[in-house]
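User: tokens in, sequence out, please.
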């Protein structure tokens, strides 16, 4: 069997000069002996996949209430789609696939039950206690504190490049609360865009499947019209055509920006003020129009809003009751992590699946 170091050297020759090297550059908080068969970011990926938080994503809502239908997306299926798109983009651009995949798999670990509605309710409750809730920060807290990989320390002890990627993860849904001086790696930027690509494609797919809007209404947006025009010549689905259009535009615009900014090294990426992985102005405008359509016809649809309101009520009730009368789980979190009652309640509720949260609210 080829030695790991020889494989690392060979793999690095396939990377662009501005990619994060196979072995990484920043290390881990707690140094570890190299694995005999896996690259560092592959070890990170495996730890994320085997974590309890990742497993729970199967029971967390993307837009619809998880379990309402057999084919609607959950946080787990969404994370897997983001990872697949991230890996394909990274490979084509000569970037570190394992790093991009690991960031993608971990990027939604901190989402509470009931989607963004649950996040809004948890954030509102935390504001009452002088703090806030933001799912990107919670993802970071999960992998650094709440999950356990070793008896010697808390957290999964992931590579710093992955932690940095989680801190930098931002999409149009997010309100940035973390501020760091340098730009994220191209791999982290790829995950940000892949997240957009994935949820834009599958929200259209899920909305059509649920009958919240029809093809004729969706065709009023320019990007959807282009995608439908690609279906016959490409022999693909609408979602496949939509993703193809976005990814193709991304490659062209990213190459243009890398050349324009004379990007040669990884350090060049860190020092630039503007992201290099991005859509063209034309595509960005079309995406705004499509997202506006989805917002008005899907996210604000009475059926979706009904589920959202129910989810928010459950999250709020759980927080209030568990804070007033902490159960054993909350007390344990307070002791193990030396945190306040509201922090422990937040960690406990944010980790719940939709079904578990509903059942606990009913029991309380």
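Assistant: Sequence out:
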């Amino acid at each position: 069997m080829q030695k790991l170091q020889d494989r690392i050297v060979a793999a690095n020759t396939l990377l662009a000069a501005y990619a994060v090297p196979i072995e990484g550059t920043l290390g881990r908080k707690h140094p570890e002996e190299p694995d005999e068969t896996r690259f560092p970011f592959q070890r990170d990926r495996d730890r994320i996949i085997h974590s309890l938080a990742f497993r729970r994503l199967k029971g967390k809502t993307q837009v619809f209430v998880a379990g309402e239908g057999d084919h609607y997306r959950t946080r787990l299926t969404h994370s897997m789609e983001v990872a697949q798109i991230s890996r394909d983009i990274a490979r084509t651009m000569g970037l570190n696939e394992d790093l991009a995949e690991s960031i993608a798999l971990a990027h939604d670990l901190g989402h509470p039950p009931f989607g963004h509605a649950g996040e809004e309710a948890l954030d509102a409750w935390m504001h009452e206690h002088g703090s806030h809730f933001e799912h990107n920060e919670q993802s970071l807290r999960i992998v650094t504190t709440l999950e356990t990989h070793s008896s010697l320390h808390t957290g999964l002890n992931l590579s710093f490049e992955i932690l940095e990627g989680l801190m930098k993860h931002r999409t149009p849904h997010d309100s940035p609360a973390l501020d760091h001086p340098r730009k994220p790696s191209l791999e982290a930027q790829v995950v940000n865009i892949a997240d957009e690509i994935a949820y834009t494609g599958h929200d259209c797919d899920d909305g059509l499947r649920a009958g919240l809007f029809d093809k004729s209404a969706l065709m009023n947006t320019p990007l959807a019209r282009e995608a439908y025009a690609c279906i016959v010549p490409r022999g693909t689905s609408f979602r496949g055509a939509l993703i193809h259009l976005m990814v193709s535009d991304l490659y062209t615009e990213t190459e243009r920006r890398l050349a324009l900014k004379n990007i040669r090294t990884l350090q060049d990426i860190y020092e630039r003020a503007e992201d290099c992985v991005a859509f063209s102005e034309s595509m960005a405008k079309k995406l705004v129009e499509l997202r506006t359509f989805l917002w008005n016809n899907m996210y604000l649809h009475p059926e979706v809003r009904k589920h959202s309101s129910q989810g928010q009520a459950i999250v709020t009730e759980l927080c209030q009751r568990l804070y007033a009368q902490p159960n054993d789980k909350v007390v344990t979190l307070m002791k193990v992590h030396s945190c306040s009652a509201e922090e422990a309640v937040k960690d406990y509720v944010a980790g719940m699946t939709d079904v578990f949260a509903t059942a606990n609210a009913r029991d309380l």
